[in-house]
Queue: 4 jobs
Job 1
Amino acid sequence: MAEDQVSRREFVKMAGAAIGGLAIGAVGGYSLMPAKTTEVEVPVEVEVPAEVPEHPWTYTKIDPDAAAARAYEAYFVAGCSYAVFEGVIGELREQVGYPFTAIPTQMSVFGKGGIMGWGATCGTLTGAGMAINLVSAGATINEVMGWYTETPFPIYMPDAPVKAEGELPTSVANSPLCHASVTNWSNATGYAENDPERAERCGRLCADVAKKVAELLNAEADGTFTAAWATPDSVIECGACHGADGPVNNVFAKMDCDSCHIDPHN
Ligand code: HEC
Ligand code: HEC
């Protein structure tokens, strides 16, 4: 009866209050972002020759640890998506020069916080996809996505931590979504979304993803890349009915169905 409905109404009221609070809290800027995010420096003078190479551009192997360190620094300049894109492309710009000098890596800033704070796809993955797809047909993007959903983060330990010292507790996102990734970490560690430790965690996560991208691209360049991620059981099982060959063909997704639908048929 009404008990369930009342509790839902209460929940809606609480959610409304929380959103009101958020609006006040957000006046100073978007809260998933570190403070000094307004200006992005272009590290190299850009000179664009008349010829633009055909896609994909030639990849040259980079040092994964250098990409990680660059991504960690970049996170505190302009957020997660920029961090991973700049981590990888910045290394190529420095090692190779043109045509990578012609890429304004700020084009990736939009991906921060799951696209401007929407909590959709984690910006590290948007940045990773942009970097990979510039120099590769993109087979490794699927691998980064799957690896991200299953790996306990953060792993990276900076030489000079920006927001919080020491090791941070880890969590598994079980999802490529910024929202799930941040909230699972918050719940697992007790840190609030706007604690400095959460920003530090995301900065280190950027380093982890940039390093993974460099490792995968290096392996692809060496011809040694093999996919390790396997489609989750739920996607196969639920897909038997809801996927392309099933009788209720209405789902197109590789995200773990169980991460959102619990007991869907009851
Ligand atoms: C044996 C076939 C089959 C399998 C396997 C299956 N489903 Fe379904 N599912 C259905 C059918 C049939 C419906 C009803 C479709 C309709 O009403 O149009 C449905 C409906 C749903 C709905 C809507 C429920 C509602 O209350 O309206 C969700 C959500 C759903 N399935 C999710 C899943 C998930 C997640 C899995 C895997 C854990 C899964 N399904 C596995 C056949 C299946
Ligand atoms: C990130 C969360 C998320 C994940 C992961 C997810 N879904 Fe959904 N799913 C949703 C949302 C949100 C809707 C829309 C529900 C609504 O509008 O009522 C939905 C709708 C559906 C529906 C239709 C429900 C209905 O009422 O008719 C089915 C069937 C379904 N999902 C199956 C799946 C399957 C199968 C998977 C795994 C491949 C999956 N979902 C993964 C969030 C998710």
Note: Confidence is low (pLDDT under 50) at residues 1-31.
Job 2
Amino acid sequence: MKYKLIYTLFILIIVFLIGNSFIIENPYFKITSKDVKLKIPKGFPKPIYTFKKNKLKADIFILGRKLFYDNILSKDNTVSCGSCHQRIAAFAHIDHKLSHGIYAKIGTRNVPALQNLIWKDSYMWDGGVNNLEVQPIHPITNPIEMDETLENVILKLKRDSNYVKLFKKAYKDTLINSERVLKSLAQFTGLMITSNSRYDKYIRKQDTFSITEKNGLTLFRAKCETCHKEPLFTDNSYRNNGIKLDSSLNDFGRGRLTEIEKDYRTFKVPGLRNVERTYPYMHDGRFKNLKEVIDHYSNAASHDLNSDTILKKIGVLTAEEKKELHAFLLTLTDKEFLLDRRFADPNMVQY
Ligand code: HEC
Ligand code: HEC
């Protein structure tokens, strides 16, 4: 009888230990120093955000990941960065035209993908933010996104013993302040680098293209490349790509910030990587699929009067050309990035 009790206790302790170590050491969510090494993909330019003043470290990245997926950043603890920026959509918001924020409020713009951010000289559709570290202040304090203050976020984090531990691990002391919150988020989002699509492998001669895809690339280079410049598929400029003003939104884009005539109704040229997943398209999500986007570019008669003159180069595309362009755009999908375990939500079951 006595032995039976000891035996049962022994088994229970073993089960507890195994269970615990599984939760802590689940390799899917484990981040090591190797995981946070910045590797500049071959053929990519020098990044603009270099991490020089925000040295990459596994425990800081882990803190950034936890914050990114935590509702604690919003006023009523219901919205996280990850609720609008979803991993399966290259961190855009799948199937939502305009962003959905706190208190079920609808925003005014389509959620952009988060990828290759360290090569950007400005953020948002109108370039309103010029520093990756400062960027999260906007959604956190925006009354229709997270409606919170940084001061209150810090208070909530200080009250959470789990965060106290995470900050200590990351920074060697328990100081919790906004600089650390913002820097850790920048480590997490800044490492979202996509460079392993079939297009990249084709360029590196590790994969082949079908004739249709090859023709699509040639067409793309002739008609789209000026603005969607390889390898990032953006020249980081602001342009009017022919879409007409939606009078229910009255979004004047870049012009609203600079108040310069030529900037009115221009928007940041989006990088097109993973475009298969980031639907719907444009700053207001007006096009639901790539077919509609390509039809738009081909139909000059429907273009806005203030369109960029470069659009004239596109002309009317034949059905075959449209198919080829479409096929090429699909080669920009990077499954390795979309399934990269480093960016998975650690609160979720592995998938
Ligand atoms: C309610 C939805 C929502 C939430 C929550 C949200 N975002 Fe966003 N995010 C957006 C929208 C919409 C934009 C584009 C805004 C614009 O252009 O005015 C954006 C833009 C961005 C950009 C700029 C991307 C680029 O290429 O220009 C980054 C980076 C970003 N968000 C990171 C975050 C982080 C980090 C958090 C959490 C602190 C967060 N977002 C929370 C909707 C959201
Ligand atoms: C004059 C510059 C310019 C040219 C040329 C151009 N684009 Fe664009 N493209 C833009 C801008 C600017 C946007 C964003 C506009 C907005 O949201 O208001 C955009 C958006 C897109 C989007 C939506 C991406 C997203 O994440 O929402 C796709 C897809 C796209 N372009 C494909 C193409 C293709 C294919 C071609 C060639 C047939 C092309 N573009 C030619 C400037 C250009």
Note: The pocket of heme C (ligand 2) is lined by residues 223-224, 226-228, 239, 241, 243, 267, 269-270, 272, 275, 278, 281-283, 293-294, 297, 308, 310-311, 314, 325 (CB under 6 Å).
Job 3
Amino acid sequence: MKHILRSVFILALLIPSGWVYAESSAVGVANAKTLKIDRGLTPEGKACITCHQQTTPGHVADWKESRHAHAGISCIDCHQVAEDAPHAMRHANVEDTPVFVSPLVSPKVCGRCHVDAKEQFDASGHFRAYHQIIPKDNLHALQVVHEGRNHPELSGAPGETGCMQCHGTKIELDENNRPTAETWPNNGMGNIYPDGSTGSCNACHSRHKFDIAEARHPHACASCHLGPDHPNIEIFENSKHGHLYNTEGDEWNFDTAPDAWEPGDYRGPTCATCHMSGIGELAVTHNVSERLYWNLWAPESKVRGSDDVLSPLLGDGPAGREKMKTVCSNCHSSTHTDNFFKQGDKAVRLYNEAYYQPATKMLDELKEKGLLKANPWTDEFQITYYYLWHHEGRRARQGAMMGAPDYAHWHGFFELQQDLYKLEGIYKKRMESGEIE
Ligand code: HEC
Ligand code: HEC
Ligand code: HEC
Ligand code: HEC
Ligand code: HEC
Ligand code: HEC
Ligand code: HEC
Ligand code: HEC
């Protein structure tokens, strides 16, 4: 609340229009501190705010509530680009000063001031969200050929309204240097910007408030981490920690400074607490892969151990496990924590050894004998195999590792055994008859 009030003071000085004076008289006249900030803003910088208060008041209202407004960082600091930048466009301008702007604000722009956040993001699994899709022909075929029906004009729609909105894409520009409709707007995590940088800093703390309190809430992750193949928000709600958050989270304090958010502000962890926030001796990290042991999304789970940001095994498994246990140790005994991970690891190994491996053995044999259909999406065996690892298998593994019994069991192992019986039935029929049913 305190800093919101302060930003109102700043605006009061910046904008000599009726609405601000009305507001400033309600909260009192600005003091010397805000005068200093006022001097930091150039006339062009002020003009953006004045005019946009009329044209797009939503942007200004959100910005006004941000730490940026408090610190005197405004539209021009993020949106101005060099005249020769690929995405530079001429804008309804301030007097005769030529200011080039773009609606695109890349992580490189944020990284000018937030060096650590950008470096950590660049070393995380989030960084590869789109890069990893580029070489995968089968995934492009799924989007364009099967889902898009190879339609001469419209085949891009499934990718543009689906994958891209979570994973991002390479943002392309039209002849006026504006982003094209095929590539923007999108909130995808791994956007590749015209300036070459990658990411989406507003994926978790949305523009123009850029609030850490927002990013500490589980729903800041939920627009992407949900659904049949990675139901992380549903898993969280099903866990005891979700129970705590859902019954009393609205009374917790999400507003403390970075690195100072500790038990006492909250009784139970959110996604951010376990995967990103500073807690006890751990510092804040924008590298969400840093505290992980397994890879739980791949067809087979292996222990992490790679520096290559494009590798599924990005991270250091044993070190990641130690860090994750440090999170738990703030609120649980080591017996509680060690036993919890023994339970979870057992479930991951059972999935690997009793489901993934036998299913893959059958798949390989059928392939060798020419008993798989060329189009996997019309082949009952291949479809069921896909569900086994990509849906049910992930739910069982992620449910077990984050304490969600409904996902570990009913949406997980229960369905896994059904998948495996089905695969065995089709396999037997094809091997005996030598043909595809
Ligand atoms: C005199 C009024 C005025 C001034 C001054 C002004 N803008 Fe704008 N701006 C507009 C209008 C009008 C639009 C178009 C809105 C629309 O397309 O609906 C716009 C659009 C934009 C866009 C989006 C462009 C797009 O194609 O999506 C950005 C970014 C932007 N302005 C930033 C700035 C910045 C930064 C400044 C200060 C350097 C600034 N504006 C100054 C009126 C202004
Ligand atoms: C801290 C950096 C920052 C500041 C300050 C900032 N913006 Fe933005 N703005 C962004 C980001 C990030 C995006 C999303 C860009 C993207 O998709 O690449 C954005 C998007 C936009 C867009 C296009 C998307 C839309 O929703 O229409 C407009 C217009 C815009 N900002 C106007 C403004 C105005 C006006 C101000 C000042 C009141 C402002 N911005 C201040 C970072 C900033
Ligand atoms: C010109 C420098 C500058 C740029 C560019 C910039 N920031 Fe900031 N940012 C700051 C300053 C200064 C603060 C305030 C630090 C404080 O309050 O202690 C801040 C604070 C923040 C915070 C913390 C807010 C809170 O609730 O405490 C977030 C999150 C943030 N910025 C994100 C971004 C993002 C995302 C971008 C790019 C879209 C960006 N910043 C661009 C300087 C910048
Ligand atoms: C805009 C969508 C989006 C949001 C919001 C989002 N993520 Fe992700 N996340 C992704 C995508 C896409 C991937 C997969 C990246 C890849 O292609 O490997 C991912 C992967 C991950 C991974 C696995 C990384 C690895 O190395 O395998 C973790 C952990 C994760 N996210 C945690 C979080 C947390 C915690 C939050 C909220 C604070 C969050 N994510 C918010 C889209 C998102
Ligand atoms: C609702 C958001 C969302 C949509 C839509 C989405 N994904 Fe994902 N995807 C994710 C998240 C989140 C993960 C990370 C899962 C995890 O870590 O367990 C992920 C993981 C992946 C992975 C594995 C990560 C890696 O590095 O190899 C691939 C491949 C992938 N998605 C491709 C796609 C493709 C292609 C589409 C569209 C056909 C798509 N996704 C649609 C959110 C989404
Ligand atoms: C996956 C979600 C997510 C993404 C993406 C993300 N952040 Fe954050 N960010 C958070 C969370 C959660 C916190 C709060 C950590 C804590 O509890 O103190 C935070 C805190 C911050 C802070 C204040 C703490 C600090 O370390 O100074 C800044 C500044 C910041 N983020 C900038 C950025 C920038 C710049 C980017 C893009 C490179 C970015 N964020 C991308 C989730 C995210
Ligand atoms: C109590 C701490 C805790 C909370 C809360 C939590 N997680 Fe996790 N998360 C874990 C642990 C532990 C693992 C498994 C790490 C390992 O490999 O040992 C994990 C794994 C993951 C993975 C799988 C990465 C992969 O390899 O496929 C994703 C994605 C993820 N979490 C996202 C989230 C999201 C999103 C939320 C909130 C909706 C959340 N987590 C809440 C502790 C937590
Ligand atoms: C901020 C404190 C906090 C952190 C951090 C935390 N937990 Fe919890 N956890 C709790 C509380 C409080 C409960 C509810 C206890 C109850 O049921 O009475 C709980 C419940 C649980 C439960 C349900 C079983 C039980 O004893 O009630 C498991 C399992 C669990 N936590 C595991 C973990 C793991 C693993 C981590 C680290 C990855 C972790 N927790 C991190 C506070 C925390």
Note: Residues 107, 110, 114, 116-118, 121, 126, 199, 201, 203-205, 212, 215-216, 258-259, 261, 272, 276-278, 284, 286, 288 surround heme C (ligand 6) (CB under 6 Å).
Job 4
Amino acid sequence: MSTALRLVASGTALLLLVVTGSAWAQTPATGPTLPPGAGREIAEAKCVSCHDASRLVAPGYSRAGWQGVLDRMIKIGVQLEPGQVPVLTDYLARSFPAKQQTAANVIVGDTRVSFKEWAVATPGAFPHDPLASADGAIWYTGQHASVLGRIDPKSGAIREYPTRVPDSGPHGLVADAAGNIWFTANYAGYIGKLDPTSGVITEYKMPDPAARDPHTPIFDGKGMLWFTVQGANMIGRLAPGSGMVKLVTVPSAHALPYGMVVSSRGVPFFAEFGSNKIADIDPDTMAIHEHVLPHAGTRPRRLAITSDDAIWYSDYARGYLGRYDPKSGMAQEWASPGGATSQPYGITALHDIIWYSESGVQPNTLVRFDPKSEKFQSWIIPSGGGVVRNMMPTRDGGLVLAESGAGKVALVTIE
Ligand code: HEC
């Protein structure tokens, strides 16, 4: 790039910052054209900037469902005048109504599992992510109720810890070696640390107010906390000792950095849900290197990693399970049992077996994939699932699932 061009480019970035008052990725994103009707102008003006219009076209909701989406978008910073809300809700419900649901496709096999589910303490808390802690407890983030919850699976006792900052929107969570629970405050834009013994929460602010929508947190082997910042298109690194946060921007625009894993060599990888890419980040320099997946339509949402450092991804948009080998650059994909609209989402690896959930089939399923035999097996989630956005293994070879819309958390025992 010539110096003159560079100057123009940085000048434009500066102008955008001043005009919008925030550095969300507010440049228009490309995507499908919205259908005509009263409310289209509002949608075009207010809903096509951080993400493109495919986010509106794809899901399909009832009017109440769209109301819920708008409540969520308003919480993360979309400004709508009171009069615009009903017009836009009607427009979205009319243009993108709830879709016919795909039935679950259950594949039988030899593995036996059993589910135990608990309703979270606050109804409607929307348990977004689960965490199996070293002491055998199950934690969850209650995104809508702004709480962290802890379930004792033996007694069924549940304790919820409200955040100090109201409406924090706790989203992802992870435990450190000392047993503190770290979480991304999705709505309020900070990283929190809960000391479960004292119940005290410490808030770590972002060094840049533009870093809205902190999303998935994970620790690397050296104790650094990494997190994706989806809406702002950034990756963050927090040093727990000093509380210092460093942020870098993802090279691709509107990449929607999402799920994360750390390799055996301590390198974080993240999914770009806004594109067909997976990226790694140098733990020292924070330089980002993007890897392009073979299908343009792939939208990797969450990641899992096996002992061979292969990255597994749930291709939410195409209904595939994928394996990407960063060493060879080769990808392999398998159609998920529920088909093209099965929306594979929460995913993890347990003893090198891949487990994930299909969120686009009713009821939602838990799917097992054995990379050696390349065979699938699947089960219906008793509660229906309510979209399993994340899952993780327990210490003793089980799985924990957060069932957000069902308001439940599940423990899966594998025989
Ligand atoms: C300030 C940036 C921003 C703007 C503007 C914005 N969104 Fe979003 N939207 C996001 C982010 C970030 C996510 C992903 C986080 C999530 O799913 O909670 C998202 C996710 C979504 C989703 C998918 C989640 C779901 O529940 O299906 C829909 C639908 C959506 N937005 C609709 C809208 C509509 C309608 C508008 C206009 C009123 C809008 N967005 C404007 C940032 C934005």
Note: Residues 112 and 415 are 5 Å apart (CA to CA).
